[in-house]
Amino acid sequence: MTDAITYFSAKLALETDASDVYAAQKSGDEFVLVDVRGMDAWTQGRIVGAVHIPHQEIAARAPVELDPAVPVVVYCWSPGCNGGAKGALAFAKLGYQVREMIGGYEYWVREGQPTENDEGPLPRVFDSQVMVVRP
């Protein structure tokens, strides 16, 4: 049983999900949400309040742009994308406290959380396959 406790404790210390990130934003928790996708993806749509640092640029940009004392949450496209893990690793190598948002942008959108692009807010979608949808 100890192995399971150790494993899941470590996993939860390094991962979070869209619902928890949204709740943390709403409650004013201090962290920086970083979109690690490329420019085309960022331009198409992103999470409200996120900053954009593609995972390939983290080593060069993070020390200049982000306070290392502030926790970081990274996200990529979806569960099928490992860009979030690459971004989390890059932040960890720099000494940041970092967590990966599992599900990525896809699950953020599917849960109906706020998104935007350069033109402004995007329509909110509530997907009954990933959450309870109430009338």
Strand portion, in percent? 15-25%
Q: Structural class of the helices, strands and pairings? A: alpha/beta
Distance between the termini: 42 Å
Summarize model confidence as the mean pLDDT: 97
List the secondary-structure elements in sequence, H or E. HEHEHEEHEHEHEE
Residue windows where pLDDT falls under 50 for at least 5 positions: none
The share of residues in helices is 40-55%
User: Can you count the helices?
Assistant: 6
What is the strand and helix layout of this fold?
Blueprint: H1 2-14, E1 15-17, H2 18-27, E2 32-35, H3 39-44, E3 46-47, E4 51-52, H4 58-65, E5 72-75, H5 83-93, E6 98-102, H6 104-110, E7 115-117, E8 120-121
Parallel strand pairs: 1-6, 2-4, 2-5, 5-6
Antiparallel strand pairs: 3-7, 7-8
Characterise the protein shown here.
The protein is α/β, with parallel strands linked by helices and 135 residues long. It contains 6 helices and 8 strands; from the N terminus they run αβαβαββαβαβαββ. A hairpin with a 2-residue loop joins strand 7 and strand 8. The chain starts with a helix and ends in a 14-residue tail after the last strand. The mean pLDDT is 97.
How do you describe this structure in short?
This protein has 135 residues and is an alpha/beta fold. Helix content is 41%, strand content 19%. The protein is built from 6 helices and 8 strands.
